[in-house]
Design a protein that fits this description.
24 strands; 4-stranded mixed sheet; alpha/beta
Length: 439
Amino acid sequence: MGHSEEQYVIRGGKRLEGEVVIAGAKNAALGILAAAVMTDDKVTIENVPYVSDTRTLLKAIENIGATVEYKDKHTVVICGKGIRERQPVDDEYIRKIRASYYLIGALLGKHKYANVALPGGCDIGSRPIDLHIKGFEKLGAKTEIVAGGSIIAEATELHGAHIYLDTVSVGATINIMMAAALSPGKTTIENAAKEPHIVDVANFLNTMGANIKGAGTDVIRVRGVEKLHGAEYSIIPDQIEAGTFMAMTVATRGNVLIKNVIPKHLEAISSKLVEMGAHVIEYDDSVRVMADGALKSTQIKTLPYPGFPTDMQAQMSAILGLSDGTSIVTESIFENRFRYVADLTRMGAKIRVEGNSAIITGVKSYNGAVLRATDLRAGAALVIAALSANGVSTIEDIKYIKRGYEDFADKVTALGGMMKTVETEQEIQKAKLELASNF
């Protein structure tokens, strides 16, 4: 019987060599695309990653009356003029992505009213929206969660406020910053998240005429303006896509030039790879990663930026599984982030999960297996493991991977990796034979 779900078939064991160009940052793009509807003017956004998450958000934005035009694969022109003032946001698209909650801040700022359906998304624990709500209420909105899982936020008048975030939250920082941009008076967001994509969303809003200072520090100050105007903006490169290719290079003992990156954003990742025995050379907007010989074990604890990113935890664990000695990886940001462990264990990894830590004892090599992506970054970790493994692996549920990696299989293939995207049982068998004989 044929699956009609797409899968990857991967033959491991080839060193990756060559160069790869990194796309725009998915997490920055989701905030920026939502913020683009806050003006009635046209906004042109460049370096938009062509992944399912961004395309889904653009469809949702279009469905509520905005116009969206792809100038080319990575450039989109958005005009939010057609969005009606009390337009509810609910469709199959919006419920697919967590970033739909950014439309609450955007529409609340613009129209003093937002009614947005909340998504399921990939299940990495409960990401509480209560911090967002607390922020909106401080700005003068009333909020309620209605049956069917939508949030309504509305205000007669918004006003600046002093907001302290109990926990560092990227989503709440961006959402509150958007609403505050159009709230008269001064807003201070304390204990704000400092991630590069927060700086990017703030820079974008400022390009549209907002007055935001301090993004990238833990205190963001916003002076509300009356309205925002059109702009042109180019999104920063994706730190996590870059990190994923860095890890993949190390796993296959390759030598790859990773282009269109901001090396400073990669420091936490680079320093761990160097600790493990890899070489990383930084240039202005690229990094070269090389590895040969044995890898050393190390300790990793995920932390908010500039600490080690939670979104690279699974990928690093995949290569720590091939290192000499014992490593401990502690996940301090999200729960449920070790669901890839069962699949890596099937490939021969020795990993024991205790609470929010994984204790990883290195093995000489992995063996190919039938695998399944459980979320975006777990899926990337399995691709890394499969590329370094003996034999052939298949990875199911690659829809999760496609949410955040553009042309993933093509980029890997261009570096010499043996990876095919297949749909039917027949295609899987054919790909297995082709990849086996390619050796």
